[in-house]
Design goal:
single chain; 556 residues; alpha+beta; nine-stranded mixed β-sheet
Length: 556
């Protein structure tokens, strides 16, 4: 008699089908042992954590690997992960998922739903495999391996790279849209590059790049092979890397022209390289903080303009920074955070020295008052060359801007204790202090849903070589809501990079409150155009598909 063969993928698919049918709130009553075992191995099954929260955290981690795509949105709605969908019946969740996928309910049921469940099971197995390979059970003080980037230590045949690329992901759309961009750039009969085309390139690349989670250097090499094939080259060489990175064919378009804009748009291959490098370094940051209770909210251009406006340094123009908020339970773990960051590959010694000194000042002056952020500028790749950039025209220097917030400070920023974002409920304004290093703007700009601008004078004082600056969390002025810089770091996408401190619930509650605030103002101003995206002070830099996603979701 032949022994039964265990198929982990099939077992996970069975558990996922059962969970989708009955819903996450009933997870504690379901027989889903494979999902629960996977969640425990990935660190989601802490003692006392409700089963529905455990499987929610696991599914979110798996869905995040699908990237920015209709599939990811459909998966969130199908399992009730989207805000407001958790308690929906299975049929209603399926209808919402089909709408996100852009197909009929029956087509979704027969095809897309099965494919999504299959892919989520694959992503969960991938997470387990990565944890095993990376030795995540090792001490949290262990430094991650340096990014050696052997791919860029030698030349390659395009044909060899193409085979590997197409075995990993479907690059057809990326290559097709890239060719469309290049055809327009090479045709000197016109002087206009429609934003929609590089935006579609960014959207296609964002979807496809989910296949390279944790393998961002390979994504760069495969991308170079795909674009090199489009350029009809036979070999991947340093000259090809530099040619595509600095692609002069785009210089004649005003969006790309050097010296004409403070925020020059990068070339297609440049933004592929620079976005992927930043995600790689964020993965390294997560690794060095393994074991320290942190959650990471991703803001800035890597959040709302990935593969579109994330650029490298050129001349006096610095490379795009990475803006993140690190949430910790309380500031008693700040020393553990600083020790972890000290092991981050590529981080500069002066930045790390300043971090340690400023953490000591924080403790000495007892700045942990429930109303103060700890901000730190970490310069990356300024003292050593990023191996990925060995063929590039620049070293690869950029900065990570870290804002550390305790759970108490995050609650204050999100107005967690107030059911509505109104003057009567939460107050007409709210402020938070920031223990920071630089003060670049004397006034703080804010915008409302109508696009109207408001400037608030900054209150800045010096403390032991650093600054204490007061930021507006929000202002309600003339009956209009103006998010401040702290809320704009979280808005518009509530992008949680990782979550080891529970914050998802607070973020979802805030999302619903700000949607209700937008509805309130639309009722009061029925003859104005009001949008969620227009309340962000960097909305002009949003990738068009992100803009659509933000504004299409402001009434769901």
């Amino acid at each position: 008699m032949q022994a039964d063969v265990v198929d982990p993928h099939a077992d996970l698919c069975a558990d996922l089908r059962l969970l989708r049918l009955h819903g996450i709130p009933r997870a504690r009553t379901l027989d889903i042992p494979r999902l629960l075992a996977a969640a425990e191995q990935l660190g989601h099954g802490a003692t006392g954590t409700p089963v529905d929260n455990v499987v929610t955290a696991l599914l979110r981690q798996a869905v995040n690997r699908l990237g920015e795509s209709r599939e990811a949105m459909a998966a969130e709605r199908s399992f009730g992960l989207s805000a407001g969908h958790k308690l929906w019946k299975a049929a209603d969740r399926r209808r919402a998922a089909a709408q996100a996928q852009g197909v009929t309910i029956e087509t979704f049921r027969k095809s897309y739903e099965l494919a999504l469940i299959d892919q989520l099971a694959t992503e969960i197995l991938g997470l387990l495999d990565e944890r095993l390979r990376n030795g995540q059970a090792a001490s949290r003080s262990a430094q991650p391996s340096e990014p050696v980037a052997p791919e860029f230590g030698r030349e390659h045949h395009v044909a060899d790279v193409l085979r590997a690329a197409h075995a990993n992901a479907d690059w057809d759309l990326v290559e097709g849209v890239y060719l469309q961009c290049v055809d327009i750039a090479q045709n000197h009969d016109g002087e206009f590059m429609p934003d929609a085309i590089p935006a579609f390139f960014a959207e296609a690349l964002g979807r496809m790049s989910a296949n390279y989670f944790g393998r961002e250097e390979q994504l760069i090499l495969h991308g170079l092979g795909i674009l090199g094939n489009a350029e009809q080259t036979n070999k991947i060489t340093p000259a090809l890397f530099r040619q595509l990175y600095t692609d002069g064919r785009f210089e004649r378009f005003v969006q790309y022209a050097s010296g004409t804009r403070s925020r020059r748009r990068p070339r297609p291959f440049e933004t592929l390289v620079e976005t992927a490098r930043r995600f790689r370094d964020l993965n390294h940051l997560r690794a060095v903080l393994e074991g320290v209770p942190t959650s990471c909210v991703l803001g800035g251009s890597v959040n709302f303009s990935r593969y579109f406006n994330v650029r490298g340094s050129s001349g006096d123009l610095p490379g795009s920074s990475v803006d993140i908020m690190l949430v910790i339970p309380d500031f008693s773990v700040l020393d553990e955070v600083t020790q972890g960051i000290a092991a981050l590959p590529g981080s500069s010694r002066p930045s790390l020295a300043a971090l340690a000194e400023r953490a000591a000042v924080w403790r000495q002056h007892r700045l942990d008052d429930g109303n103060t952020l700890f901000s730190q500028h970490i310069q990356m790749w300024s003292e050593e060359d990023d191996p990925v950039m060995s063929w590039a025209p620049n070293r690869g220097e950029y900065a990570i801007e870290i804002r550390v917030a305790s759970a108490e400070v995050l609650d204050w920023i999100l107005a967690a204790g107030n059911p509505k974002l109104t003057s009567n409920s939460a107050g007409s304004s709210r402020s938070v202090r920031d223990f920071c290093q630089h003060d670049t703007q004397p006034d703080e700009p804010q915008r409302s849903f109508s696009g109207r601008n408001l400037r608030t004078p900054g209150d800045v004082s010096e403390l032991a070589g650093s600054l204490l600056r007061t930021h507006r969390v929000y202002s309600i002025h003339g009956g209009r809501y103006y998010p401040g810089s702290a809320q704009n770091l979280i808005l518009p996408r509530f992008n949680t990079r990782w979550e080891n401190v529970p914050i998802r619930g607070q973020l979802e509650m805030f999302r619903w409150k700000i949607i209700e605030r937008l509805r309130h103002e639309r009722r009061n101003h029925p003859y104005e155009l009001l949008r969620m995206s227009m309340a962000h002070t960097r909305s002009e830099a949003f990738a068009p598909h992100i803009l659509r996603s933000v504004d299409s979701g402001d009434t769901t």
